[in-house]
Amino acid sequence: MNRLFWLFCIATFVLSGCSINHQLPIKQHYTIERAVEEGYVVSSFGRLANIDKLEQFVEKANLNENAEVKIAQFTNEGDPIFITLKVEQNKIIYTYDASLDTYSGPVKVEQHTCRSIQKRMKVKGASYQLKDCQTIGDVEVLYTPVSNPNERP
């Protein structure tokens, strides 16, 4: 009887170990090139792509027209952080998704409602800022540096 008990315990342990592997999420490597191809506004270590899509979004948002733009920013480790901005009913829905960032904190996806978006010119570039977001205040969603101080973004 004792041998049967231990055989049952070992079989349960082995089978439960197999089922855990099937439940783990598979992290897909998301590259800058893929984000550019999929139409994201991309910001990574001074590299910008599809910035015109953000400019169009700002124009439509300021006219209270329905619009959406997706931004992909990449961490030092190469992990993407996704930002989605969507204008609906005279407000901007801001979604921050760090679910593929290995080193992000416990909150992986956040969503907030903001009043407006502004482009602010700075000495060395432009800052795109969401204004009056519920619970978080103002948020800079993207900064576009310029390589030449005489050049304007």
Description:
This protein is of the alpha+beta class and 153 residues long. The protein has a domain at 32-115. The protein is 26% helix and 41% strand. It has three helices and nine strands. The protein has helices at 2-23, 32-37, 51-62; strands at residues 41-44, 47-49, 67-74, 80-88, 91-97, 109-114, 116-122, 125-133, 137-145. The protein has a six-stranded mixed β-sheet with strand order 2-1-3-4-5-6. It has a three-stranded antiparallel β-sheet with strand order 7-8-9. Residues 4-9, 13-27 and 148-153 have low confidence and may be disordered.
Features:
3-stranded antiparallel beta sheet, 153 residues, 41% strand, 9 strands, 6-stranded mixed beta sheet, alpha+beta, disordered C terminus
> How much is the average pLDDT?
81
How helical, in percent, are the residues?
25-40%
- Walk across the major sheet and give the strand order: 2-1-3-4-5-6
Number of β-strand runs: 9
Strand and helix layout:
Layout: H1 2-23, H2 32-37, E1 41-44, E2 47-49, H3 51-62, E3 67-74, E4 80-88, E5 91-97, E6 109-114, E7 116-122, E8 125-133, E9 137-145
Parallel strand pairs: 1-3
Antiparallel strand pairs: 1-2, 3-4, 4-5, 5-6, 7-8, 8-9
In short:
With 153 residues, the chain is an alpha+beta fold.
